[in-house]
Design brief:
The chain is mainly α and about 120 residues long. It is built from 5 helices and no strands. Helix 2 packs across helix 5 and helix 4 packs antiparallel against helix 5. Heme C binds next to helix 2 and helix 4.
């Protein structure tokens, strides 16, 4: 009749069930595939940094403004020449924008632009 005793078949069945479930769980635990592109990568000065600093900083840091002597936002070179100070104030100490706010995603994009060597203008 049966080639294998019923217990063997039962054990095999339970084993298959467990193998099946644990595989499913492993798939559930597995984190989502990393996005092909990190958010905030490929940030350019013209499309992102310029408008951000214009909105968040130029009110005080532009020629003729109150904090112009400390740093004056006046285009690409005014940022690259002061990259370390700007990074320190905005990304490290988070003391700027003074009296204003900046979103986490904007900070991330700004960080990415600096990380890329401020070359993307
Ligand atoms: C409301 C006016 C105001 C705004 C807006 C503002 N700042 Fe400032 N910033 C100041 C003043 C005043 C100082 C000097 C006093 C201080 O450091 O707190 C300063 C100092 C700095 C310094 C010099 C810090 C150092 O330690 O050398 C940098 C760099 C700077 N700001 C960058 C920025 C950037 C970048 C933004 C926009 C994200 C910004 N600031 C927005 C007023 C402002």
């Amino acid at each position: 009749m049966l080639k294998y005793p019923i217990t063997t078949i039962a054990i095999a069945f339970v084993y298959l069930l467990l193998a099946c479930c644990s595989k499913k769980q492993a798939e559930e635990i597995k984190p989502d595939q990393p996005p092909t592109e990190k958010p905030g990568t490929n940030v350019s000065f013209a499309s992102f940094v310029q408008p951000l600093l214009q909105t968040k900083c130029a009110g005080c840091h532009a020629p003729g403004r109150s904090a112009a002597a400390i740093w004056s936002f006046n285009g690409y070179t005014s940022v690259t020449a002061n990259a370390d100070r700007i990074k320190d104030a905005v990304l490290v100490k988070k003391s700027m924008p003074l009296g204003g706010t900046i979103t986490a995603s904007d900070l991330q994009s700004l960080q990415a632009w600096f990380d890329q060597g401020t070359l993307n203008n």
